[in-house]
Amino acid sequence: MTEYEIGEIDTSIYELLEDAFTSAYQILRWRAVYTAGHLDLHRFGNNLIQIVSEDSDGNVRAAAAEALGEIGAKEALNPLIEVMRTDTTKVVFSRAMRAIAKMGDAGTLIVLRKNIKNFPEHRRPDVKRLIEVLESKANLDEI
After folding, report:
1. What are the two backbone dihedrals, phi and then psi, of residue 73, each rounded to the nearest 5 degrees?
2. pTM
3. How far apart are alpha carbons 71 and 116 in whole angstroms?
4. Predicted confidence (pLDDT) per residue in 25-35, tens digit
5. Nearest alpha-carbon partner for 50 in 70, 67, 38, 28
6. What is the pLDDT of residues 42-100, one digit of tens each?
7. What is the DSSP string of 50-87?
8. Which helix (H) or strand (E) holds 135?
9. What is the distance, to the nearest Å, from the Cα of residue 30 to the centroid of all Cα atoms in its chain?
């Protein structure tokens, strides 16, 4: 179902999701983030960037990273790299890495190569693997 079709059904879904993003209840925040990602609601890219960077719950941040990858929010690439660098929750790191692998480009490669030394030592092997994935993706795009 596209964003246009959802809008045709009822625009109040957008208001409900926006309210749920800031709910005191973790499960409502998680569900709203999951829904926005799986319905490909690009209009919530900025909300999801804020959530992946600031939400108090690791599962919600991880879901936001995954949702950003699902919707292909290129504006989230730098915030996702920052989350990979600073978030101590393994699942958040993993989902941010997966989202970047899904939508990263040559510019992302440059940023990762330039900043790999700024990642914690134990994360660098994963970042190197991400760089390899993006390099092979770039090579396939050239064919």
Report:
1. -80, 90
2. 0.86
3. 26
4. 999 999 999 99
5. 67
6. 899 999 999 999 999 999 999 999 999 999 999 999 999 999 999 999 999 999 999 99
7. HHHHH-S-HHHHHHHHHHHHHHT-GGGHHHHHHHHHH-
8. helix 124-142
9. 13
Summarised one tens digit per residue, pLDDT across range 86-127 is 999 999 999 999 999 999 888 899 999 999 999 999 999 999
We report the CATH number of the domain holding residue 40 as: 1.25.10.10
Q: How far is CA 40 from CA 13, 29, 52, in A?
A: 13, 17, 17
Least Cα distance to 96 among 114, 110, 108 occurs for: 108
Given a contact cutoff of 8 angstroms between Cβ atoms, the answer to whether 55 and 22 are in contact is no
Name the E strands within 1-143: none
- Residue 132 belongs to domain spanning: 3-142
Count: domains in the chain = 1
